[in-house]
Design goal:
Length: about 300
């Protein structure tokens, strides 16, 4: 069957990025004093900055935005966020509880924009592709080692969703002409340079396609300083992937942001409308410094180093 009924429906994980922007005239010290870290502790969310014993099952991360570049979908709540808080858990309850309680705690002092989704079993990954890519994938490491992050939400075009899952699958693999020459790398080869050095995390909207105002995918990357050029190389390669003739999906514009942790990326041969790519710094904050330390300096993109001792 070519409809989506054959695709995996199980949900493995839930996650959200809470984009925090100080309201005009808000007291930054009051925001800094909000009991957000205490809330995380109450919900059993472990800090991702310096995990012990591997990535935590229920986690939280405090991220400072230092730059953003606009793209095809305007999203002021993300572009102008002073900080982003990531929360994740195997079940939906801790994530929804955090978002609801953080909204109450922070009140009118901030403007919140929540984006996220779920993790499902892989759709197009057979044994060979698993051994090529996922067997060597980077797992989350200390923020001291991988301080850079990019958050990249995106939505596919209507023409993409009109395709059956088998046709979509073909965009992940190379395409060859009748003489056996490779015409386009496809998603797998275009992103191959990042397998050994880029952590990638992707949330999907629970239904496909996502409704208006939500994203189909929210992708996040982490990397070390030395691997920032590789991140940009992979993004450029994905944008340049050739598409089959007669394709009806429009390619969206994509912005770039410099260096520190999590953002949107084009998939399936560039057939996406991406939002802003946002550079973030993963900051391990003390409870009394959330808010003040997480706020980016005004006046344009700011390149920051992840400290971990805030």
């Amino acid at each position: 069957m070519l409809d989506n009924s054959v695709l995996a429906g199980e949900i493995l994980r839930h996650g959200a990025y809470v984009c925090v922007r100080l309201a005009e005239g808000a007291d930054a010290r009051a925001v800094a004093g909000a009991a957000v870290p205490a809330l995380a502790e109450k919900l059993g969310l472990a800090n991702e900055f310096d995990p012990t014993g591997g990535p935590p099952a229920q986690s939280i991360a405090f991220l400072r935005r230092y730059g953003a570049a606009e793209s095809a979908i305007a999203d002021d709540g993300l572009t102008h966020a002073d900080a982003v808080v990531h929360v994740a858990a195997p079940t939906a309850q801790p994530v929804s509880d955090f978002c609801a309680e953080a909204t109450r705690l922070l009140g009118d002092a901030v403007r919140l924009r929540v984006i996220g989704g779920v993790v499902r079993p892989r759709t197009y990954t057979g044994a060979a592709m698993n051994n090529f890519a996922y067997a060597h994938q980077v797992v989350q490491q200390s923020g001291h080692l991988m301080p850079n992050a990019y958050l990249i939400p995106m939505s596919k075009t209507a023409a993409w969703w009109a395709k059956d899952w088998m046709e979509r699958h073909t965009y992940f693999l190379p395409r060859y002409d009748d003489e056996g020459r490779m015409r386009s790398e496809g998603h797998a080869l275009a992103s191959a340079a990042g397998i050994a050095c880029l952590l990638r995390r992707t949330y999907k909207y629970p239904t496909e396609p996502a409704p208006e105002g939500a994203y189909d995918f929210v992708t996040y990357f982490e990397c070390a300083d030395a691997d920032v050029p590789t991140f940009h190389q992979v993004c450029a390669s994905l944008r340049d992937v050739g598409t089959p003739s007669g394709a009806s999906c429009a390619r969206g514009r994509r912005g770039m942001a410099g260096g520190s942790r999590r953002g949107p990326i084009s998939g399936a041969g560039g057939r996406s409308r991406s939002s802003e790519r946002v550079g973030l710094q993963h900051v391990g904050v003390r409870p009394d410094r959330f808010g003040s330390e997480a706020r980016a300096r005004p006046g344009g993109p700011t390149a920051c180093r992840r400290d971990g001792q805030r």
